[in-house]
Design goal:
Length: about 325
């Protein structure tokens, strides 16, 4: 019962931090977007003053900025990201969450597939590298972490397309298809390779520290077999730094998925972000940014729950 109360207090504190953080993000993004010169309806073809005035009034852009922000917050609290300024008759909710496979559904699918491979493989390779230090495999894990930390997906993506699509003709160069294996293999692999070495490197360092700790030395002195020491005593504290990495890494995978979608011409949030930025579709840029920030905070909140059960120090 005491542990349950401690967990609830812990989560309430985290929630009290998350709410003002989310509000500050909305305020900052809203201010930056509305600080750009011009308005969404100023294009190559000039509109008459009467039409411009009517459009500004229709989309509430003729109101003071503070009043626009207030009305936008009210809409957000009702789950409404507002109308699109460029896709006439469509809402931002409909663009981000379409009825067909596109928008957020494509980006989330890529991110989930990448996380499914990134986390288990990263932990497995990191544990193996930490258990067998200074071997060729350990050096390979360190080298791959350095390489993929320095080279972004916007570079590795085209290289993978050139190798597997142009030269070897094994996989399609771009497109979504039906979301089949051939179309998903390259983007998911690029995202996995971008983040798996980091998980492996963190796991490697963590398990090395754990194996050198006093309680592991005590377990060895008692004559416990190596397998029992690793799986019963070492694996849980080893995962603590890895779990704390999952929140920021999930945000990185989502951003990486948006960039990867540009490389492979996938109909996800990447295309919408580009369209919103180039067409001055304020609500579209706001909606994608705020929703992405909300997902990051929500996933960090979930990671905090896992961290509470893994690390006894949190309970104190």
């Amino acid at each position: 019962m005491d542990e349950y109360r401690q967990m609830m207090k812990f989560l309430i504190r985290r929630l009290l931090v998350a709410i003002p953080t989310m509000f500050c993000i909305v305020l900052l993004v809203f201010s930056l977007v509305h600080a750009t010169p011009g308005n969404p309806f100023q294009g190559e073809k000039a509109l008459s003053p009467e039409v411009m005035k009517q459009l500004l009034h229709q989309y509430r852009l003729d109101l003071p900025v503070w009043q626009q922000f207030y009305l936008y917050i009210v809409d957000l609290l009702h789950g409404n990201f507002g109308p699109s300024y460029k896709f006439i008759g469509q809402s931002i909710n409909g663009l981000i969450f379409p009825d067909y496979m596109g928008g957020f559904w494509v980006t989330m699918r890529l991110a989930i597939y990448a996380m499914i491979f990134t986390v288990p493989l990263g932990i497995l390779f990191g544990c193996y590298a930490g258990l067998y230090r200074n071997t060729w495999f350990d050096r390979l894990v360190v080298m791959l972490n350095m390489f993929f930390s320095a080279v972004p997906t916007i570079v590795t993506g085209p290289l993978a397309v050139f190798l597997f699509a142009v030269i070897l003709h094994l996989l399609p160069a771009s497109g979504w298809g039906d979301g089949d294996f051939k179309h998903l293999f390259l983007p998911v692999t690029i995202l996995t390779l971008a983040y798996m070495p980091t998980v492996a490197f963190v796991t490697r360092g963590s398990i090395i520290d754990v194996l050198n700790s006093n309680f592991i030395r005590t377990a060895r002195a008692k004559g416990l077999p190596t397998r029992a020491i690793i799986f019963k005593h070492a694996i849980r504290p080893t995962l603590i730094p890895v779990v704390s990495l999952l929140g920021p890494m999930f945000a990185g995978v989502l951003v990486g998925a948006i960039v990867t979608e540009q490389v492979f011409a996938l109909p996800g949030l990447g295309i919408l972000t580009t369209n919103g930025a180039t067409n001055r579709d304020y609500n579209l840029v706001l909606g994608i940014t705020i929703f992405g920030s909300f997902l990051t905070i929500a996933f960090n909140f979930f990671v905090d729950i896992l961290y509470f059960f893994l690390d006894p120090k949190i309970k104190q």
